[in-house]
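Data card: per-record layout.
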Amino acid sequence: IDALGRGLVVCGRDLDGIVQAVEATDRDFVVGVQWHPEFLLFSRSQRSLFRALVAAAGRRAIPAS
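The structure for this 65-residue chain is written out next.
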């Protein structure tokens, strides 16, 4: 990521200072990462990304009729 989109802020960098994660703080759940957390499911910090996604989706779920 060399230029942030409108409303995005950096929320993660690697050891070299390169941006690796961004988020929108003015929205319910907008996160972008430049790695593959799905390949790192044994890492607790990576699983928290998925838990946050599922929780955000649950808040937006349409109730059954």
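Known properties of this structure: DSSP finds one helix and three strands in the chain. The mean pLDDT is 87.

See the next section for split statistics.
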